[in-house]
Prior knowledge:
This protein has eleven helices and eight strands.
Amino acid sequence: MSRTLRLGVNIDHVATIRNARGGRHPDPVRAARMAAAAGADGITAHLREDRRHISDDDIVRLTREIELPLNLEMAATPEMLDIALKHRPHAACIVPESREERTTEGGLDAVRHAAALRPVVGRLVDAGIRVSLFIEADPAQLDMARALGAPVVEIHTGAYCDHEGPARARELDRIRKAAAHAAAIGLECHAGHGLSFDTVGPIAAIPTIVELNIGHFLVGEAIFDGLDSAIRRMRALMDEARPAATP
Ligand code: PXP
């Protein structure tokens, strides 16, 4: 059976726990292997400017030792561009980054930063790396992603996950419309940020979304139930919401 919805497991916070003590345990590469065995279709890792979780060495090991495609989340800086071009991950997701934030708090403003993004997207695409832009569910941002030559967008699901009730329903509607717009203009559409067992279903059910990237909740849940079990349950919830295509 071929899957219509891929799961990228973000292993950043395995590295966060490792870095709390500065040693080697727990090893994000081991987590990536476990994710592969539990049904992940890809591994996602964010190399931040301050190296607060994933390290340069993790990126080297993930590209060498893991067979699943690596999706490198990166800011559009000269340093990160050099690293991406050196290691040539399968994919690069360009994210906004500020030192003060606890996590990637909003989408990239591709409209405002178009001039700076254009050459970065171009160099990554020319190197054969599948580029995505992490943006809000906003048609103007999607149109700009396409104009910049990015073949993929990842829609930020943080506001949808943070809200409840009617506000969450409004966010879901915005994501649904954006995902339809992405497909209409020829962009591959991904989604992620803040997704959990409770919030994944309605996002997984959107037919034009083909990949979800999920990390923090899975690593948190692993404390109680193990990483393998957390990933398998997430995978099952995704498949339930969007049955795999029959061959
Ligand atoms: N997608 C992108 C582009 C991200 O930056 C992040 C967080 O690093 C995620 C997905 C995963 O978010 P979470 O860890 O909240 O599941």
